[in-house]
Amino acid sequence: MTLLLKNGRLVDPSQDIDGPMDILIRNGKVARIARNIPSPAGKGKKTDNGTSILDMKGLVMVPGLIDMHVHLREPGFEYKETIATGCEAAVAGGFTAVACMANTDPVNDNRSVTEFILREAAASGKARVYPVASITRNLEGKILSEFWDLKEAGAAAFSDDGRPVTNGSVMRRALEYAHSLDMPVLSHSEDPTLSAGGLMNESLVSTELGLRGIPAAAEEAMIARDILLAEYTRTSIHICHVTTAGSVRLLREARARGVAVTAETAPHYFTLSDDALRDYDTNLKVNPPLRSAADMEAIREALRDGTIDAVASDHAPHALTDKAVEFDVAAFGMVGLETSLGLTLKLVHKGVLTLPELVLRMSLRPAQILRVPGGTLKPGSDADITVLDLNRFWTVDSGSFRSRSRNTPFQDMPMKGRAVMTIVGGQVVYRESENAS
Could you write out the three-class secondary structure of the chain? Predict the structure, then answer.
């Protein structure tokens, strides 16, 4: 199949391109990028030789967005999300690929679960899925999973996300073993002795609301440990969902010493502060929690200057029965695949990020950190493309989500800019005009 995208603006930081460009796709690969690629002879939107032509006038074409931190729930929690519905939500949100965490039931700590995830993803025919296998068996933090076997089965990284690896010796061995396989380790940095029983950020707000707090030190103490372990073992570490100014400071200091540490944050951490919980909305109950306004500004600045490498949704779907309960017993997490891009574009509109910087944080850097293809539209690369309408005004409507769950705090929030087409391997897997509700 041949596809020609005409008259669009191409933004590709990997090639330092931001300007008018056409993209020619053949057999799922980028064949050529240039201005004014001649259209083969033919009439209308399809030529005589079978080339499909799509007019991108007024639209922006970027390397396919990659969400490096999602929870697809299957196997085990299909009432919250399935791999198929998660992939539907991903492409509707502009993501051509996602990395899914291991806290399923059974846990992705063995070859059979990894292979199952890949089969289900292939059957969905939508987004690419990169399984993240667990660091330790059954997420118990005691015995390492079979790293080599999991890599051979198709795992892209290792993480016990949802639970921290509290045993320093186990984490050290994980870093060394993963390094020998050229595989990333993604750390859920939390000291459970400090966070135990906490429901939100420990602050004046938590005191006023009468909710048990989770101090910033619970995150920062474990990040400090993981940085020291990576420095000592001369390996690399990736820090998940960074939320505090103290964490940002630790990352900057480590980078200055030459430590190979990367980090991500999620849109809710640069959009909302803990003050938003005054209505006890359980959709705002997340782990790590929403922090202070000062922390929120520190996260924005860290994204701007590159201290935080990537934006990831931490998409955590829950059924109504998990959230429509008392705040104390409600599950942690919110859905994010279909709002992540819109929320991050708000930083572009406010001048915190440029559009190329957004693409860097949501496409190229996630691909580089995970060591997976993507993040570029250089000739010969996979034709994974997200098409944006930066002037498209829309309002969040959870009732139209492709995700199986609806636990978002952003219902009815106005947005400007969204993905209107998603192309994976040269195939159009999402088009807004065909999917709009």
Answer: CEEEEEEEEEEEHHHCEEEEEEEEEECCEEEEEECCCCCCCEECCEECCCCEEEECCCCEEEECEEEEEECCCCCCCCCCCCHHHHHHHHHHCCEEEEEECCCCCCCCCCHHHHHHHHHHHHHHCCCEEEEEECCEHHHCCCCECCHHHHHHHCCCEECCCCCCCCCHHHHHHHHHHHHHCCCCEEECCCCHHHHCCCCEECCHHHHHHCCCEECHHHHHHHHHHHHHHHHHHCCEEEECCCCCHHHHHHHHHHHHHCCEEEEEECHHHHHCCHHHHHHCCHHHCCCCCCCCHHHHHHHHHHHHHCCCCEECCCECCCCHHHHCCCCCCCCCCCCCCCCHHHHHHHHHHCCCCCHHHHHHHHHHHHHHHHCCCCCCCCCCCECCEEEEEEEEEEECCHHHCCCCCCCCCCCCCEEEEEEEEEEECCEEEEEHHHHCC
Residue range 139-157, pLDDT digits in tens:
999 999 999 999 999 999 9
| Tens-place pLDDT, residues 123-144 | 999 999 999 999 999 999 999 9
314 a catalytic residue: yes
| Catalytic member of 22, 314, 322, 384 | 314
Return the domain boundaries, the chain. 2-61+381-435, 63-370
pTM comes to: 0.96
Domain 63-370: assigned CATH number: 3.20.20.140
CATH of domain 2-61+381-435: 2.30.40.10
